[in-house]
Hints:
By secondary structure, the protein is mainly alpha-helical.
Amino acid sequence: MTSTDPARWRRLDAILDELLALPVAERAARLAEITGDDHALRAEVEDLLRRDETADALLDGVAVERFDVLLAAAAQSGAEPADLAGTQIGPFRILGRLGEGGMGVVFEARQAHPDRIVALKVLRAGAFAGDRQLRMFRREAESLGRLNHPGIAAIHDAGRTDDGLHWFAMERVDGVTLADWAASRPAPVTRVEIAARIAVFLAVCDAISHAHQRGVVHLDLKPSNLMVLPERDPGAAPAVKVLDFGIARFTGSEAAMSTMGNHGSAFLGTLAYMSPEQADGDVRDLDVRSDVYSLGVVIYELLTGLLPVDIRGLPLAEAVRQVRERDPARPAETCRLLDGDLETIVLKALAKDPPQRYQSVAALAEDIRRWRDDLPIFGRPPSTAYQLRKIVARHRTVIVFAAALVVALLGAVGGTTYGLVKARRAQAEAQAEAEVAAETARFLESVFRVADPSSGRGAEVTARELLENAAAGIDTALVDQPRIRGRLLSTMGTAYRQLGLYSEARPLLEEAVALERQVLGPDDPRVARSHYSLAGLLRRLGEFDAARGHYEAALVIRERLGEPGDLAASITGLANLEVDQNRLAEASALYKRAMAVTNAGGAPDSVRLASQLSGLSLVQWRLGEADSACATMERVVAIQRSKLGDDDLDLAWSLSALGSFYAAGNINDRARALGEEALAVQERALGPEHTDVAETLDLLANLHRTDGNYAAALALHERALAIWEKAVGVDHATYGMALDHVARDLGSVGRLAEAITAAERAGEIFERTLDPGHRGIMINKVHLAAIYRDAGQTRRARPLLEAMLTYAEGRYGPESREMTEIIVEMARLDAAESRWDEARAHYRRIAEISAAFPDSAHVLSRLRDEVREMEARRAAS
């Protein structure tokens, strides 16, 4: 029987993880060493090992149609691939030897059914680090099989010989390695040759990016794994094929080092292309950015003929140290044509610190294409500001905010005056605007007098106090001046909105629209500005129909006036609204229309364009185009850093959004760094109680949940909840969302009664404030069911899950991610009620659905752990 004591279970789980990391032959001795005379503990661990095999059996075979004979155990014999010509391996007859690498020998072979020639790679003994890596490969075999791209050599089949040697049957590629192709060409000292090499490299990037979008990282990119095919079309760039996709990920760096023996030079050749984090040997730290680094080595060598870090002839330890620490020479030192942006791109890809590299291969390729097309690139060398940020913290006082607000207010008036005069409007109108500007200046002088140090308050005055003083002044001093009053109502309402003070902003903006329409007429650009500001507020409050009316009113005016910036802003506002209502195709079309207007107005790579790209990236993300979304948002961040500086609030929002993308892709260190940078900027500029701060707190809290640190997640979610309560009140959908997050965290830390109360209250808010089909209602009910289950109230949980399962199948489809989120809760509920067969059936169904997801490996790994725990509980029952 397996223990059900929590502390003992944690010890059992730690022991099991340690044993699973060892080869099978070494486990018994290590288990005896750990358990000593504790025979009961040993029996429990042995039982868990058997259950682990059962868990694998449950999930293995799911969606592995072409991989029924995949590797089952690590080869322990000392056999090596011999000259196998004429022999039979599985369904393949060996025709001859093609080549040899550090991991094994590649043969040419023929398969009878179907009739085809393949490349059969037979791995040396010990290529896999252990059983765990083999099981990982099996569970991700379908992911590898789905890499259907003309630039990726397909894996057809896999198995093991009677001697215990593992083999992989791959597509036979007729071509030459990238190294041989480059050696056959002229030196890269002319623009023509550099362009030819860049074209081939971009083809490699496209293939790698395709795999990354499907959750597969290569981790062994080097010229010998990159094949250049014979040219078929004169003048066209040669096609490429990437070999050995995914194999390095499952063999592990420890196993790679163990193959050195007589093959040490081959391994050092591989090490030269490894990222610093991969050379350190901790595969847990590896993600797509390791492939970015390897591609940086490849392009550096393509363009210079040299390795960025030459480790030939060095001892292993010294070679690893050089890869980690030594910076490459500038490519321009070999050829002046490589100076400038191209050099910047290459060196950014080779950054030692992963966050300083391109964050995706797509982003790297995009910058190269921009260089090729004579467009500004997005990658830049680390700025002085970035370096100083590691040394000193910056501070911003409310006086800075006050000054910025004065500029904004006066700028709105002065700019309009200038525009009106320049447009040669009537002299009377220009004179009236000048009077408005003068009166506004006098009004602002009185408003900000409270911040004068001689007043005794000085910098203690908050931005909110300044705004309240200004609003009161409008009511008392400008009653008989509707033109000035309308202008200031609009500006002050917008300022309140930007501070997250929505209830204070709304009446000011509504009065501004009504007053300016009356005074200025319905077609004035200032009326459009007030409509636009009010629309943004209503959108934030979730009043989408009312927001649409004001966005469209602003758009009608701005279409008649034709000013590109204002017109693009209105189109972008409507696009944002479409995203809120999940009309993604309409949103994408509007963003692209806004971008066309911006570009036509002569503002490429402007802050305005960054705003439109930001919205487009969110649409790409929602459509499942994760790599494109990250690349687009990286471009937004680059533009905003360049144009606005490191302390800008729009940049902070983009950093937070990009962080959420990386968090969803399990690149948690990068996500956390982005979130923390965004939070620091927001708190300095807006204070600790702004709604933007709440959104970033939510990102960081969810990262804590991913790490299993539920107490930290709860603390941040509770802080966000307090912010939303002040901003929108306790009967708003956004408050309900924040409350649902808190409920889930309360359940995770064992405060189940409080969790039930919070989740039920969130559900009541949703019933009043959301459409019946809103996804938030479904998520809340699933969370509530999980809390009921943990509290032992399974009879209350089951009807909720059954209802949501029916709803999700009809709304999202039977093979959607939403279905898996509910089915996994059904499996957990079945296990809680000892319905073991039903639980197993549910876990199997999740595995079948999840096989089509880009992150299928992550999902299946999580399921494996759950099934293992379930089998242990079943044995203990």
